[in-house]
Amino acid sequence: MSALGAIDTTRIDALRVELVDILGEAAVATDDARLERASVDGSGMSPLIKELLPLGRAQILAMPSSAEQIVATVAAAVRHGVPVTPRGKGTGNYGQGIPMNGGLVLDTSKARRVIEVGDGWIEAEAGAVMWMLEQTANKAGQQLWMYPSTAQSTVGGFVSGGSGGTGSIANGMIHQGFVKAVEVVHATGEAAAVRVEGDDAVPYLHNYGTAGIITTVRVALEPLQPWRAVLASFDAYEDVVQLMKPLASLTPTPRLVSGDRAEIAACLPAELGIPAGRASLRAILDESTVEEATRMIEAAGGRVDDVREGAQHTVKLSMNSYNHPIEWLQKTAPVPYFHVEVLGDALVDRLDEVQAVYPGGMLHIEAQRGRPIGMLAAPYESAADVLAGFDRLAALGVSTHNPHQWAVDFEPERTAALAAVTDPQGLLNPGKLGATVHAHTGTQM
C-alpha cells in the first residue's frame, strides 16, 4: 500500500460481495458518480489544499444503517486488508475525510438512531445529526453543552474531527468533559465494538478515526435555557472586538458571541438583517442578560438592531460563526481568500498588528473561554506566504492552527501509540496520522 495509492481490485471485489451480504445491494456502491462524491469534503475552502486535489478516491462506498452494521463493515474491511476512511456529512474543511489510499469510504450518516436521553446526557449512533440531538434534548428540558457551527454535522463527525462550537464559551472543547462515552471498533481480529467512558474516551476524539471508528457517542447535556439571538452593529470594528471579553463574562454565560468587520458582514446572508456598512456583533444570550448586554453595547458606541426568539434564529447565528463568515467571503470576493485559525488576547489588544500580518488581512472574532479565538483571512498569493505568517503571528503572542493540512494534530504521539495497538495494519484513515503535509503544521491551539 503506497501513499495516495489504491488497493488491488481483487480485494475490493471480494469485499463488495461480503458487504452486499451484510448491508444489502442498495447500501454498497462502486459507481463513479457516488465514489467521486464520497471522496471529497469541504477542503476546497483551503486554496493550499485545493491546489493539491484530488488527493485520493474511494474504490467502494458502504452506507451502514446502524451501529452494528458499522462494526460489521469495518470487520469485513479488516479481513480483506482494505483501508477504511470514515465519513459523516463530509463537512470537514481540512481533507480529513479524503480516502488518500483508496479503499473503502464508510459513510456513517445512515446510522442515526437516538439511543437514549438521560439526566445530563444523550446517546446516539455516530450518524445522528447534531441539530436533531439538540431538538431531542430540548423536548426533555435540556440542551447540548455545545454543537458545531455546521449544525447539520453528525455527532460522530463532530467528535472525530471538530474541536468546539456554540456553547464552548461556557463548556470548553469537546475533550473537556463534553464526550461521556464512545463505542469504537478497532481494526484488529474480528473488529468488535469496544465501549470506553470518561477520560478513557478522550484519546479517540479529534483524530479522524485513525485509532478507531466511532459507532455510538454519549455527550453531555445541561438544563434548557431561554436563548435569544441578539444582532448589533457598530461604526467601528474595534469596538466589536473590545466587547468580546465583557460579553463572554455575562452570567449566565452566552452561548455564542461573534463579530465581523463591515467588509465580511456584507457577505453574510441577508436574512440576518445586518445594516450595510457597519461592523456586526451577533450573540446568543440568555434572556435574563439581554438588558445588560444592550447597555454594554450602547455604552461602547453600538446599537442593538434586533432581538429574536426561537431556535430557528439562534441556529442561524451559529451557522454564521467560526469559519462560516470566511466561507461567505470566499463565495463573494473577486479574489481567492485563505484563513488561519488564531487564538489569544493579542486579537483584542493588538488587533491592527494581527490583521497587518497578511496584506489585506481581516479578522473574524469569537468570544471563547479563556481567550478570544478567530479566523484571520486575507487574499491568497502562495502557500509560502501563508506559512511564513505563522512566525509573525507567534511573535505577536498569537497561537495558530493551520487549516491547510490533514494530519492529526491533537496529541498525535498519543494517537500514534494507540493506533499501533488498535490498527496494527494501518487501515484506519491512512495518510492522516504521522503524515508530512504540504509544508508544516501550525502551532496547536
List the helices and strands and how they pair.
Layout: H1 9-23, E1 28-29, H2 32-38, H3 47-50, E2 60-62, H4 67-80, E3 84-87, E4 104-107, E5 114-118, E6 121-125, H5 130-139, E7 142-144, H6 155-161, H7 168-171, H8 174-178, E8 179-185, E9 193-197, E10 213-223, E11 227-234, H9 237-242, H10 244-248, E12 256-260, H11 262-265, E13 279-286, H12 290-299, E14 303-309, H13 311-318, H14 324-332, E15 337-343, H15 346-349, H16 351-355, E16 362-366, E17 373-379, H17 383-395, E18 399-401, H18 412-422
Parallel strand pairs: 2-4, 3-4
Antiparallel strand pairs: 1-2, 5-6, 6-10, 7-10, 8-9, 8-10, 11-13, 11-14, 12-13, 12-16, 15-17, 15-18, 16-17
Give the CATH architecture of the largest domain: 3-Layer(aba) Sandwich
Strand content: 15-25%
Mean pLDDT, nearest integer? 94
Instruction: Compute the number of helices.
Output: 18
Low-confidence stretches: 436-445
- How do the strands of the widest beta sheet line up side by side? 14-11-13-12-16-17-15-18
User: What structural class results from the helix and strand content?
Assistant: alpha+beta
Q: Radius of gyration in whole Å, from Cα?
A: 22 Å
CATH level-1 class of the largest domain: Alpha Beta
CATH topology of the largest domain: Vanillyl-alcohol Oxidase, Chain A, domain 3
Principal-axes shape call = globular
User: For the record, what is the CATH homologous superfamily label of the largest domain?
Assistant: FAD-linked oxidases, C-terminal domain
The largest sheet is: 8 strands, antiparallel
Q: Which percent bin holds the helix content?
A: 25-40%
